[in-house]
Amino acid sequence: SALQALLQKQERMTRQDLVTLLSLTDPEELQALYDAAYAVKAEKVGRVDYYRGLIEFSNRCIKNCCYCGIRRDNEEVERFDTVRQDILDMAQWTYDAGYGSLTLQSGERQDPEFIDYVEALIRDLKKIGNGGLGLTVCVGEQTEETYRRWFNAGAHRYLLRIETSNPDLYATLHPQDGHHLWQVRCDCLKMLRRIGYQVGTGDMIGLPGQTVEDLAADIQFYKDMDIDMIGMGPYVVHHHTPIGQAVVAAGLDSEADKLNRLHLGLKMIAVTRLYLQDVNIAATTALQALHPLGRELGLKAGANILMPIVTLPQFRAQYLLYDNKPCVDEHAEQCRNCLSARVASVGDRVGLGQWGDSPHFFEKN
Ligand code: 5AD
Ligand code: SF4
C-alpha cells in the first residue's frame, strides 16, 4: 500500500512524508507506523531498554519559561536544594541497582557557586564504581567554558531541549527579556557537540500554536544538528503558569485534547525512529502524565530509554514542571520495580549494568 511504501523510505523521507505520518489518525495505520518503528528499533538499537536514573537535585531556576511549573515567578513553589551527600547516596543506589547511567537535572543557574558545585559533584559522581556510572547533565544554558569544565570533570552526555525548532513559536512561549533566546539555545547545542559530548535535545509536542509542520521541522532539526539522543514529550498543562492558564481558558485541555497530545507524542517517537534510525530516544514521564500506559506505548513506538526517578521522595512534589506528574508518591525502589514490569510487558529487556550509549555517536566518531 501507499503507507507501506512510505514507511519503507525511512531516512529518505521528505518533509512532506514526515507531515503525512504525523497526521495519521486511522488506528490500523497508526499501528503500522508503530510496528515499522519498533522493527527499526529492534534492528538498530535492539529490544533492550536502558535506564538513566533521574536525580532532580534542585528546583531553583533563573528562567521564567511560560509553560513550566518551576519557573522563577511561581511563588507557590517551595524551593529546595538536595544535600550533597544525599545526591551521592542516591547515585550509589542507582549504580548498585544496575542502572547504567545517571541524569543530573535541576533548574537553570549560572552563578559561579553553582558552576563550581556541579563541577565538583560530577568529579565525585565519577568516583562511584570507578567511573562505572554513565553521566548525563541537564542544567540548561551555560557558557562554552562551563560546558568544557563539566566535560573535563567527567560528564559525557548533555541534554538541552530546543523545545521547538521554530524561533517564532519559541518566542511565544518565553518572556521577551533577552534571556530566553532561541539562537542562544541552538548555539549551546553546537558548543556541546564541539566539546565532544553526546548531545541530546527534544521538543514539547502539542504546544498551543504548534503545527504538524513545526513538528516535522523539529525532526529534521534533530537530523541537521546530528543529535545523538532525543528526549521529547507531550506538553502537559501546569495550572499555575501563563501558558497553562491560557490553554485551559481557551478550552483546549479536554480529555480529547490530552489524548491527542499523547498520540502526537507517540507518533513523534515513531517517525523520529524511522528517520534517525540509530539514536537513543526516551519514553518520557510526560507520556505517562497523559495515560497510565504512556511509557509502554512509547517503547512500542520505538523509544529505548527510560528515566526512572531517583529524586528523594520528600522533594518530588516540589519538582512539578506540569500537572499530574506520575511517580511523585513513590520512592526509588518502587520506581525500579514498576519500570521493569513495564519493560517486560512490552517484550523488551532492561540493559542492566551498561551505559547504553547512542550507537549514532560512535558511528560518526
Ligand atoms: N509540559 C511538558 N514538558 C514540560 N517541560 C517544562 N514544562 C513542561 C510542561 N508544562 C519540559 C521542557 C524542559 C524539560 C526539562 O521539561 O521541555 O526542557
Ligand atoms: Fe527553568 Fe527549565 Fe522550567 Fe524553563 S523549563 S523554567 S529553564 S526548569
From TrEMBL:
Protein name, per record: [FeFe] hydrogenase H-cluster radical SAM maturase HydE
Top-level taxon in the UniProt lineage: Bacteria
Organism: Megasphaera hominis
Gene: hydE
Annotated keywords: Iron, Iron-sulfur, Metal-binding, S-adenosyl-L-methionine
PROSITE patterns, sorted: RADICAL_SAM (PS51918)
Keyword Iron carried by entry: yes
InterPro entries reported for this sequence: Aldolase_TIM (IPR013785), Elp3/MiaA/NifB-like_rSAM (IPR006638), FeFe-hyd_HydE_rSAM (IPR024021), HydE/PylB-like (IPR034422), rSAM (IPR007197), rSAM_sf (IPR058240)
A Pfam family per the record: Radical_SAM
SMART domains tied to this protein: Elp3
Ranges for domain Radical SAM core: 47-270
Coiled coil: none
